[in-house]
Amino acid sequence: MLIIAATLFVYWPAVRNGFVWDDTALVLRDPLIRSWRLIPEGFRHFLFLDATASNFYRPMQRLSFVADYQFFGFDNPGGWHLTSVLIHAGAAVALFFLAEKLLALAMAGGLSETARRAWALGVSMLWAIHPLHTSAVTYVAGRADPLAALFGFTALVLGLTSLENPGRVWLWRLGSAACFGLAILSKESGGMFLVVWALALAWRRANPRSLAVWAVLIAVVVGGYCSLRYTAHKVPPPVAPPTPVTVRPILAARAFLEYTGLIIAPVTLRMERDVSTAPRDTFQATMQNARLREFETLGGVLLLFGFALWARFAWRRAPGAAFCLGAFALAYLPISNAFPLNATIAEHWLYVPNAFLFLAVALTILSFTASASGPFLCVSAPLRLILTGIGVAWFLLLGARTFLRQEDWRDQRTFVERTITAGGDSARMLMNLANVESNAGQDAKAVTLYREALRRSPDQPIIWLGFANILARAGDVPGAREALGHATTSPLLHADVLQLQASLAQADGNGNPRELLHEAVASAPANWPLRKRYVETLEKSGALVEARNELGAFLREYPFRAESWKIFGRILEETGEPALAQTAYAEASALDVREK
Predict the structure, then answer these.
(1) Residue range 525-596, CATH number
(2) Measured between alpha carbons, how far apart are the two ends of the chain, in Å?
(3) Residue range 537-580, pLDDT digits in tens
(4) Are 561 and 574 in contact (CB under 8 A)?
(5) Distance between CA 456 and CA 430 in Å, rounded?
(6) What is the pTM of this model?
(7) CATH 1.25.40.10 in the chain, residues?
(8) Fold of domain 426-510
């Protein structure tokens, strides 16, 4: 009750927020969340179906969006936010049970039941209200993290129960294996819970029979996941240039120090973070940033050395803390910069690793101070009072920071502007702000922002394409054509370039819009927004039969979009086929629970 109440209190302002950033793609534009009938289809597709290509296969996240759309639609984003907060609270409750079980196993009777629950409560509440996790909770599109944590922590609890409870052992094992599968289906990093579980089996010295059973169950989970993931439809994203192997340890040291600072003092929070030595506007600023990064590298190396000493102590004196440190290391390794990712650092990546880190801290403190008389016997009363006061003050400040952080996600403009103000003034964020200004009719501001983004990243075709769209919207057709020429360097943007060329051809008569759209459709046949525009162009030009055949062929290949069937019904009415039109409208209603 306390965990849920604390979580709801610090995150309650989130229910006033709208949809921001990737919410537009994963919520507003995903056709697979609009009907219960489409749940199986949702498992056959990666995320970002009608947006940028990705490597994200997260059907459980999409399934949770199906439920939200059923109950709240798009007119009540507060309901979506409340769901995310409740899932986060559920993950914190699962962490409480995991912490209580680990404390019981690690302390072996050295703690009373009341003290054990108090420590488990402290760890889980600290994790629940820590502001570093807001980008995984407040942001609807970040829900994969809380889902993976909810299932992963539950899987570990059930798995540990199966080792110590001979009754109904198969029930615990099957429940644990199912939760492991749901965790990895929620987010790819959920697979780390399986590795953590393997570490737990070694720590608890499971008998050979139990190890054999778990080997089979893990193989079934991994095999089932792979059979779903590698048969699902996806559009491969562009491959970023790999980070040189010699640079990765440097980035890893910097990230470790920055993450540590964010855990202790999460004052400045933002989505866009980077620990690379990126050039700045002036030579002096570039050199100053380079010096700062070198000091950060040195500090990170020293901190990693300290972490190694901590692990060495835990290995000798506190096996429970050693297990939690090992679990933290396993969960942290994929985001440590040891492997190339789409960023060097991101706040929400610490969502799961932090849980094991907080547990390790608690068990380390207990290994120093626990006794039969109480956990703080060896500390003097005044010092105990001071330390307790500092801890309570820190806890309250963290909760206040989380409460205030919710306002940063109120709407798209607030989110982008505050991210830039907090230091996340990347070219991508400037481009996002330019799009906000353009949608508000502020074309001059949008052009200025795009020019600044291009000054910082002149080799990004996606920014040139966005700039060309802004110029076209502002009526600067020659400027749009010039900007569009820079975007043609990316083959992945070929269809989007052709679509904009069609718009420009329609504006100045220099080209055939219909032929350009036809070529664009041929180069990206699964792109629904592009196909929709082509069909509507045919319809407006009077080529109704051609539009009917074009859309009919698309529906045979991709029959899950309610909007496609609705447009198809309209065209069938225009071609004098009312019976087929009614069938198309009925299909549209079946594929969208809110379609009338």
Answers:
(1) 1.25.40.10
(2) 41
(3) 888 888 899 999 999 999 999 999 999 999 999 999 998 899 99
(4) no
(5) 10
(6) 0.92
(7) 426-510, 525-596
(8) 1.25.40
